[in-house]
Amino acid sequence: MRDRPSPRRAPPWHPRTERIRPIDVAVAVGLAALPLTSVVGGAAGATVDGLTVVLLLLESLPLIVRRRFPLEVFLVVVAATIVQLAVVPVGQEFLGGLGVLVAFYTVGERLERQLSVPLVVLAGVILAVVLLGRGGFPTVLQSVVQTELILAVAWLVGDASRIRHLYTLALEEQARMLEREREERTQRAILEERERIARDLHDVVAHHASVIVVQAGGALRAFDTRPEEARSALEAIAATGRQALTEMRRLVGIPGGGGLMTAATMAGFYQGLLRNPDALWDPELLRDATTRVRCTFDDPLMGVPANRSRGLVLAGDDGLHQFRYAMFGKDCSPRSFGHGGAFLQVAWADPDTGTSFACFKNGYDTDMLTEALRVLPLSDLASALP
To answer: Is the pLDDT of residue 7 over 60?
Structure first.
């Protein structure tokens, strides 16, 4: 059972490299402009002097870099606020205060509680003392309590934001770890399967190869004098070979299967076989693969010569091209070549017309005749193109 992700970690950011964000610039400039506009506009009881302007700027403009220097900005903003509270005469309107809320929020969001809690408590106590000193204890008590509550809420909101962000990062890290573990398990399973297949293949090949060698030796010795025994030995070799192939297919599947491609991509591939751009294939090898029949054994399903070349099927000039894997169109020239994949996933190209055709499906019908009746009309249409 996995532990619940814990948000008690170091901050996920690097303050000294944190980039300045436009929103921080906008907030800082806005907080600076608001009280300065009141001072310049002659707010009731407000006096314009250099110290007031400097303090107001110190309470707001440092917030531009609050993400990069959260501790330093907090100290500067709180100090400027305390000084302004101390120097503003009693009865005169206090124009600052909003910047300190953002500063409290910032230390809650950016600093660990071990550091932020003592800071906000100390700053809150100093601000309370200064506020109480501006008026009598009973007179300003309610204002002090409200101010402290507002500052506490600002810090709590920042701290909650930090915890939520850290918890999200913890979940993301756990997801990455689970993904890495899954990939490692997959790789281990692949390696184990490869080792198993290698062992089984070794056993199958070694056993059947030994039988074939022994039978072949017996057939050679009896070939001239005991032809019936030689025939029996050759039949045993054929049966052993078929059994070995069956077992190998069971172990490793059908070689070359499992490719993923769209019909359009395959048709483009056959255009490449027609044109051989930039001599992608050796011309002699390509000519051999697309023109020379190497196997004319009858296809056991359709009963016509297979006309196999090096990996391709050639249409041929015997008029039986539509019966070869049920893929060539009726108007395909004898020089056409192609291949019928799993259950008539077909593709072909005709050098005489320059046409290439491919038809793929996500599934197939177990009835081969049904599949052929679906594909052949499409192939006929393609072969009729000029």
So the answer is: no
The whole-number pLDDT of residue 43 equals 53
Sole residue written with tokens 């029949």: 293
Q: What is the pLDDT of residues 283-299, one digit of tens each?
A: 999 999 999 998 888 87
Task: Give dist(CA 12, CA 20) in Å, integer.
Answer: 16
- In sign, the C-alpha dihedral spanning 364, 365, 366, 372 is negative
Which residues, in sequence order, are CB contacts of 203 under 8 Å at separation 6+? none
Residue identified by tokens 């005749």 is 369
Is a pLDDT exceeding 90 seen at residue 56?
no
Instruction: Give the distance, in angstroms, between the CA of residue 130 and the centroid of all CA atoms in the same chain.
Output: 57
pTM of the model: 0.48
Helix axes 22-40, 98-110, angle to 10 degrees: 160
**Best CATH choice for the domain 263-383 from the list 3.40.710.10, 3.40.50.150, 3.40.50.2300, 3.10.310.10:** 3.40.710.10
Mean local confidence (pLDDT), 134-138: 66
* 93/324: higher pLDDT: 324
- CATH 1.20.5 assigned to 191-252: yes
Which DSSP helix (H) or strand (E) runs through 291?
helix 283-291
What's the rounded Cα separation, in Å, for the pair 73 and 79? 10
Q: Give domain limits for the chain.
A: 15-178, 191-252, 263-383
Can you tell me the distance from the alpha carbon of 180 to that of 188, in angstroms, rounded to the nearest whole number?
12
Q: Is the dihedral of CA 259, 261, 267, 269 positive or negative?
A: negative
For 351-370, the pLDDT digits (tens) are 999 999 998 877 666 666 66
First to last CA, the chain: 67
Residue 174 and residue 5: Cα distance in Å, rounded? 7
Tell me the residue type at 54. V
